[in-house]
Amino acid sequence: xxxxxxxxxxxxxxxxxxxxxxxxxxxxxxxxxxSERAQEIAGWxxxxxxxxxxxxYKTLIxxxxxxxxxxxxxxxxxxxxxxxxxxAAAFAFGALCSALAGWLGMxxxxxANVRTAVACQDGxxxxxxVAFKAGSVMGxxxxxVAVFGMSLLYxxxxxxxxxxxxxxxxxxxxxxxxxxxxxxxxxxxxxxxxVGKVEVGIPEDDPRNPAVIADNVGDNVGDVxxxxxxxxxxxxxxxxxxxxxxxxxxxxxxxxxxxxxxxLLLCVIGIISTFIGLPFVRVGKDDxxxxxxxxxxxxxxxxxxxxxxxFFIIVNLAAGDDPSKQLNWGALIATVAGLIIAVxxxxxxxxxxxxxHSPVRRVAEISSSxxxxxxxxxxxxxLISIAPAVIxxxxxxxxxxxxxxxxxxxxxxxxxxxxxxxLSLTGIVVSNDAYxxxxxxxxxxxxxxxxxxxxxxxxxxxDSAGNTAKAITKGFSISAAALTVLAMFAAxxxxxxxxxxxxxxxxxxxxxxxxxxLLGCVIPALFSASLMLSVTKNAFTMIEEIRRQxxxxxxxxxxxxxxxxxxxxxxxxxxxxxxxxxxxxxAVICPLFVGFVLGPGALGGFLGGSIFTGVIFALLxxxxxxxxxxxxxYIEAGNxxxxxxxxxxxxxxxxxxxxxxxxxxxxxxxxxxTVMSLVSTLFTPLIAVWHIFG
Amino acid sequence: xxxxxxxxxxxxxxxxxxxxxxxxxxxxxxxxxxSERAQEIAGWxxxxxxxxxxxxYKTLIxxxxxxxxxxxxxxxxxxxxxxxxxxAAAFAFGALCSALAGWLGMxxxxxANVRTAVACQDGxxxxxxVAFKAGSVMGxxxxxVAVFGMSLLYxxxxxxxxxxxxxxxxxxxxxxxxxxxxxxxxxxxxxxxxVGKVEVGIPEDDPRNPAVIADNVGDNVGDVxxxxxxxxxxxxxxxxxxxxxxxxxxxxxxxxxxxxxxxLLLCVIGIISTFIGLPFVRVGKDDxxxxxxxxxxxxxxxxxxxxxxxFFIIVNLAAGDDPSKQLNWGALIATVAGLIIAVxxxxxxxxxxxxxHSPVRRVAEISSSxxxxxxxxxxxxxLISIAPAVIxxxxxxxxxxxxxxxxxxxxxxxxxxxxxxxLSLTGIVVSNDAYxxxxxxxxxxxxxxxxxxxxxxxxxxxDSAGNTAKAITKGFSISAAALTVLAMFAAxxxxxxxxxxxxxxxxxxxxxxxxxxLLGCVIPALFSASLMLSVTKNAFTMIEEIRRQxxxxxxxxxxxxxxxxxxxxxxxxxxxxxxxxxxxxxAVICPLFVGFVLGPGALGGFLGGSIFTGVIFALLxxxxxxxxxxxxxYIEAGNxxxxxxxxxxxxxxxxxxxxxxxxxxxxxxxxxxTVMSLVSTLFTPLIAVWHIFG
Lengths: 694, 694
Known about the structure:
Two copies of one chain form a homodimer. In chain A, helix 4 packs antiparallel against helix 7. Chain A is globular. The longest helix of chain A is centred in the C-terminal third of the chain and has 48 residues, at about 455-500. Chain A is an all-alpha fold and about 700 residues long. Chain A has helices spanning about 5-30, 35-75, 85-120, 125-155, 160-200, 210-250, 260-275, 290-320, 330-355, 360-365, 370-405, 410-425, 425-450, 455-500, 510-550, 555-560, 565-600, 600-635, 645-680, 685. Chain A has one domain. Chains A and B meet through helix 5, helix 11, helix 12, helix 14 and helix 15 of A and helix 5, helix 11, helix 12, helix 14 and helix 15 of B.
């Protein structure tokens, strides 16, 4: 089989996915946008989101130009022709692609929110339909743009290292989008709650609150654009890491050429599976929307496994007796192992964050004895929740490695495939995930525009399904990112060995490696702290602004005068972007510093260390945050005294603590470790040769 | 020089230290024990502490018999004669020694508390004098017993591996004492506060509270016996790790024999330095007691550096031109590097937990905007506080390694010496540390026995000095433990290589090693969670008991009937001991499981992983806990609204969260990683030969 066929399949698959996204986008626009009042509110959210995105993309363009220039200049000296310029171009292209998909996702989310609210007037299934269709725009666009972009770059330059630039661009954007969005959304959320609910006692999503629009914008920029960029980033990085490993083993004649492209082709199969899976996501009149979302994940998973197996059979039948054209069954097993374990990890996360199981209920129960116990217990369950996910990652890694090896493939290449297998679900996972903030917004709009109580309740049903789906997505995306960076980690080492022409061992008994690991372990802690302190600082500023408005214009609280929403929006936007500078520099400079000063071995250790604690903190924060949130909701549903009880007050504090845990720091750690791995891998040609120690 | 002289120096030094402890013990007993009322209260605390210690030691004896038998049987097959039996005996001896020192420390603490309160009637310096003298009993006994025990064992059997058994015994006791004491103290503390202060509104240390005696007992069992055992454990482990490394390099003819015993001799110099330093710890009429404690640390440190340098000069002059009898200057530099960095780390910890610096003040300030922000901000500063300590550990390791190597010593042996250097301050550090709970108790007794307001205030002054000293001690002991386990980690690898007769590389790219690291990273999280959940569970039980007593006998709250203190004491005691079983098994079984199943490489990785996250979580929890505690105290001192304000309420929650962080989970992690390292090293003869994978 001509390998170009695979690349064309990538182009076509990607293009079709983008097309499907656009079709769904149009369909969403055709739904009823509702009353003038509802449209007005949605318009504010839309405008706020645009303001932020414009600022974000401006920052990004500035950063991209700086990094692009640096890459172009620094790599000008590397042996291959035009390597610097091409890497820089691919970098810009990667950032652009990710931005494009994020922009489309946001665009549809801010149209779909109001339409979902309106559709809820007819019933839960109708509302679900609009929101999920809108979510799928993001999911489809994301995988489409990624696969199309990577296939195109490879088709033109036939060099995986160029695609590495693409991945780095996507990753850097993801870091900015996710961390910035995370800070934005929680700044607004916390400030709106603390002044609105606690100080002046107006309900959530009350239009008299000057921060209410910023809060709703936050859902979009944090959970749609941010989370989308984050998964885009892991998705591309997993494919690139596997392709790099494939190319490296192909160069050393260990494996044949098709393995370089296999990861891309698995993505195409993932797209096809998503096409097949999406129409099956339906909610009947009495069905639970949460179940529909989970079903979609599992169903797509099965479709993917079947299609991939069929693909392997067809290729091997077509290859006949030519072993260089056959595909190794070990590769199939590794891929499917990753896939299965991704689902298992997602569901164990569910155990810790779903109110049907004991951790959430136990935290709700103990809340009646004091806020301190709420925090300690939730935090402890968060610590425990790390274990199943890490064991899952270890099992996936060990199985993928040794099975591949047993079948004669390089073990680490199998680990890369397991990561690709995990992420093959990206289309459907992002669809599920983008659904969440849309229904959350819909609920807000329903409330603010004074729709009937029934409508708000239906939107709430949709919302709580979104929360569970979101928790599962996070467990899944952290694990996938972990496996991805482990593959990227190996790719880094392969790169160092290739350029330094020496074997690299990352022996923990080597003091430089150990120093690297210890320093690497600290980075995720500093990064999370920096993001969370930004949230509290910005929330503080916004709280003062809200108080100022209430004081300056008493008509606001009476409901006769509109508050100045834009002021809060601009505090959240500029605060978030300013807060990004430190973490972004941390992510890029630290690995380079360690690499050029302490040497490639220390940098390897550093990446390892950052992965270890990065994964642990990400799981801890995401899961404990989700648990606190759902404990609060469980109490609000009337348990242990219900809303207003002592238990509820304690649970609200738990939720406030959990907010920046689960929506700011936790999920941003993914992108942090990916960016650090990519920076290091990108700079292997230089670090391998120039360094002070080691 | 005959090496036996060094061993006799160890015996004599150790014995003198024990003697000095006993002398100070007698001196403490000679102080005025105060009024009948005060003595009665002190008697309750004393009885409660005895009850718990008896239970603890019973558990320990049971465990020691089980482990001793296992060791004796398992190691019966090892080539050396009687290895199993001797290891078992040394194990029991180690546990006994640590228990003895802890028992003496407790014994004097429960006598000194009331005498300190009485002495406070004369003034702050008088009170300080009693408390510090009592604290020094623990410090001197600890190092004395350790050095005497190790010297004796080596003198008889001339085999470091036997001392390894001693160290394991001390460590297992430390795990039980520290984790059990930590659970005990926080169970009582939280329960007493939540019902007493919050529900019925009686002050802290009010004799009407049924949990008040348990709370005061808790200070002794957690902070005296527990913390003492913890540092004893690191102290012995550091010496044993260095001796093992020395013995291993001596066996391969890399270094001469004196390096095997040098670590022991450094301890003797440490004892002498403590003798010199102790009399200088005095508080003038207007001096701050905190400054006196810090001064004592720095002063002893300088004395130790000077004495060690003199010792090196004398030995080298005496050795003349015989290089086999000279001491390498690299060893001196490594030792002093460890010492200096220990002090630096202690003081950076101080930055994050002292109310004279911005983190504590910032958390106090933000508390007025809501409890959620208190938690997030404190937790974030805790995350940041990890960085300086880890950088310190890395610098100490790198300097010790490369300087030793440059001078021709094996680098890793230098790292072991740096750990010994850090821990050479143990005598003074434990003295400072045991001072804390004694003055805390004194304050309680002063309050309960109705001494004048002035006396309580003076006791409070002493108490806050104890808090700062305690924070520094924790930063110091975590760092020292980290360096110790790094040396032990190397000793483990040397052991595996010696017994398997193959080189061991812990390459992070080896999937089994990586799997080990990832699994190891999870253990400290599970361990902390298990301890903290025990605290909340036991506190819950005790809260119910307190409520029951108040309800059954209304006379208690009126102050006419005494509550049943023993009930709360027995809930705390038995709850703590029951809760220990899980964590203790975790600590012993997990490394053996990984070693025998996944092999020695995976176990090496596992130890590494547990060290990485163990150190990180220990620093995070200890420092954020200390920070919250002092933020609360800062508000209570009249800032940001003072006691009773919204800020204060938020800070109280922060303190409740911080309690199990800093006094239960955080410091127990030290002993966890030491126990796991020791178990692994002890089992090297078996694991090197028998394992399924790897």
